[in-house]
Amino acid sequence: MKFLHLVWSNLRRKKVRTLLTLLSIIVAFVLFGLLSAIKQALTGGVTIAGANRLIVRHKVSIIQFLPYSYKARMERIPGVSLVAAQTWFGGIYQDPKNFFMQCPVEPEAFLEMFPEMLLPADQKAAWLKTRTGAIVGRTTAKRFGWKIGDKVPIVSTIWAQTDGTRRWIFDIVGIFDGREKNTDTTPLFFRYDYFDEVRNQAQTWGHGQVGWYTIRVKDPGAAAEVAKAVDAEFENSSAETKTEPEGAFVQGWVNQIGNIALIVSSILGAVFFTILLVAGNTMSQSVRERIGELGVLKAIGFTNGQMLALVLLESCLLAGLGGAIGLGLAWLFAARGDPTPGFMPLFYFPGRDLFLGLGVSLALGLVTGFFPALQAMRLRVADALRRM
Amino acid sequence: MAGPINWLSQVASVTKFGLLSVPQRRGSVAAAVFGIAGVVAVLVGVFSIAAGFRRVMADSGAPDAAIVLRSGADSEMVSGLSREQTRLIADAPGLARTATGPLASAELFVIINLPKKSTGTDVNVPLRGVEAAAFQVRDRLKIEEGRAFEWGKNEVIAGVGAAREFAGLRVGDVIKVGRYEWPVVGVFSAGGGTAESEVWTDAKVLQDAYNRGDSFQSVYARLNAPAAFDQFKDALTADPRLNVKVDRQDDYYAEQSTGVTSLINYLGYPIAILMAVGAIFGALNTMYSSVAARTREIATLRALGFGRGAVIASIMLESIALALIGGGLGAVVAFLVFNGFHASTINWQSFSALAFAFAVTPVLLAVGIGVATVIGLLGGFLPAVRAARLPIAAALREL
Fold this sequence. Notes:
The structure holds 2 protein chains of 2 kinds. Chain A is of the alpha+beta class. Helix content of chain A is 54%, strand content 16%. In chain A, the strands form 3 sheets. In chain A, strands 4, 5, 6, 7, 8, 9 and 10 form a 7-stranded mixed sheet that branches. Chain A has a 4-stranded antiparallel sheet with strand order 3-12-1-13, with helices on both faces. A two-stranded antiparallel sheet of chain A has the order 2-11. In chain A, helix 1 crosses helix 13 (304-335), helix 2 (15-43) runs antiparallel to helix 11 (260-289) and helix 2 (15-43) packs antiparallel against helix 14 (351-378). The longest helix of chain A has 32 residues, at 304-335. Chain B is built from 13 helices and 16 strands. In chain B, the strands form 4 sheets. In chain B, strands 1, 5, 6, 7, 8, 9, 10, 11, 13 and 14 form a 10-stranded mixed sheet that branches. In chain B, a hairpin with a 2-residue loop joins strand 9 and strand 10. Chain B starts with a helix and ends with a helix. The chains are: A alpha+beta, B alpha+beta.
């Protein structure tokens, strides 16, 4: 550690160059952080999926409804412990750009099915008492400034109201938080009984139909058999089902969006390749310029190992510092939440990637410092001194 | 002050020095050039996705075509129209008519799950039921392989994009929807539009298969002139028996593409800007080292009477030249890698898959080169000023 002073002086000898290299490393790691957060936002749903939950949807496509009567039939299938129905409401609050999901659900089964959505007990009680009541996630409540007691008008693109319009008004009775960091706290949920009653009066179709079911299985190990049993139960009916684990269902949506992982990693690859070039070049240049001095160090008794360590320490310090600052900035940015109007509810910088980033920054230091360090180590004192 | 010719020759001499020393500084020059190439390639690549998506949407509409949906519906998926309503729409003024009747096709739009070839997982493939007029309403429609489906039969034809991206849509394949089997009898193109991602069949057959009675979701119509749109729209919106919204197809498809393109813009711009900033630091480093390597030469020239302006101009020239080489390289790479790259994504507005090809447009290439130039300018300016300010005596003493 007594050489730290030496390393520090070396870094300061060309301040502008060190600063510019540091800045480009910072930029690279800000990008690294943002891309991790984007990837997290687009694929993170897969990891939150419960291992004991299955999604049951219409075999032909998700847009086709399933009869509500399936619920009771599924509850009788061995291995099924809970069934909850959801339906796509397709609502718009003020502007189509303000996208968030709304679904009619049965409060008790729903809250039991999704324990990661935390709703205070008194708010749950209020929801059970209020037919037109709705609960909304913290993110959306904050976004629109909704408070408990507010009446919120939402225009459905699909479902008519009894007055002939498609404008529904819900009473916000609860605001739920996420138990996990990656719990989606953007949706709004309201009561299925109210929804069903209104649509029965207001329109001629869709009665007693729901969008999809979530099933909880008693034993996650037997999930595949339960899924088979559910699909077998409704085989050859007018609405055949397709049952799959929640994770596979979410992954299916991610795959539909496109190959995000590939795009993100190619951008990262291009960025790091560039940074490596610039930083590596700067490092080797600064070593070349100091050959004479390094020769002196060797002449006064520095060992090969010490020379190696000296140069590597310098490059790792630069890369590590840049990495830490860059990742920190990205973390600060991601902590502010979704930068888009509702496209990416799960936008955050996962801790795992933070550590990965730090590791990468050290690796960057080692790689860029390696050749200059080797050069310094192999230096022959006589040659070096002659160049002074 | 020397004459302009003299000044230019000064610039040329200093620039020559710079260029001659490039091989000595090849590491840092290569770093800057490849750095800028990387930035331009990623920038052009990311925005070619949005451009490709927009191109599909732009190729879908025509100025003299309209689409009618239920009022309040933002896509065909959630729209609904009865047989009576579609008749009223077909009789409205402003529509183009042929011997067989008005050019209006009442259509049904549903989704079926088919596996995506690249991942093997299900995608929402649009299945559209059309009426005979559909083939004239969309005038760029062409059967590329096989034949058209027969009316009244459970037969489908697949768009070229759908056939390419999703499994089981080759001529001779059979798709299963519920309890029905539908042979694929043809593959069609539609001038690059969204229809190429769809599977088509007879609307009547589809109504039966989906128990839709005699209802539809949209009417696609061709007007007798682009200017007839207002007349057509006013007639429909004034009709008390109808509760519909009428859009030009151009506007409708532009609206449909906003989700995907704004997502790409939200993500693409910050990434592009960050990368450009990173590249500017790299270029600055390169040009500073370029100046540092030539301290004595520049000081000598200045001592001989070369002006500051000439020194600044030549260093900027060098920086911009390197940036342009990098930018050009990046643009070529982006074009070779991304242009025409086939992909499919989900169009959230219609909830269904859309096949498209990345489009590296001339505008994108120009933007890429432009960004490279700006990086070169910014990266060269400060080092150029430093070179011009070099205290001559001190620099010469280093000799």
